[in-house]
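Let us practice reading a record.
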Amino acid sequence: MNTRELKARIEEMVDVIKEKDPAIRSNIEVILYPSFWAVINHRIAHSFYKKKHYFIARAISQISRGLTGIEIHPGAQIGKRFFIDHGMGVVIGETAEIGDNVMLYHGVTLGGTGKDKIKRHPTVGDNVLIGAETIVLGPITIGSNTKIGAGSVVLEDIPANVTAVGSPTKIVRKDGMRIKPTDPSEFTKAKKHAV
């Protein structure tokens, strides 16, 4: 990552934080946000990771974790305009892929299953919101324009344009319309048809 790219990412983070957090009063406050440092440090660590400088990448990510309480593996691929609100306890694994304009709240885990050196962490589409204390495990996909409610446990693919909540997750909205199933199997039908 060169200086110009880093400057662009910093400006992007300032804009995203100002847009997403109504509590911010000035641009300079951004430097007080743990998510600002976690994401910027990840961008730097990821650039070393892509060049196969794994030790340097891991050192940056581990120092950042200690300073911010947010753990992002340097191998994770993260799109533009990514924001973590109240970031304590967020964990993002090595093979996680996150699209553009994604927002996570505190305590979110994008975790892996197994110890194989393959894709084992979630893929998150664009324009996704994942609520506080949500656990998303395995090489599953969360579709674009989706919201996952706080405290959910996601173990299966979630289609695009839905709101899903609970443990196990159930789809409660599709394209902004509330789903009112007559029995629990309707949630499964809605999930299959929403893809």
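A brief commentary: The mean pLDDT is 91.
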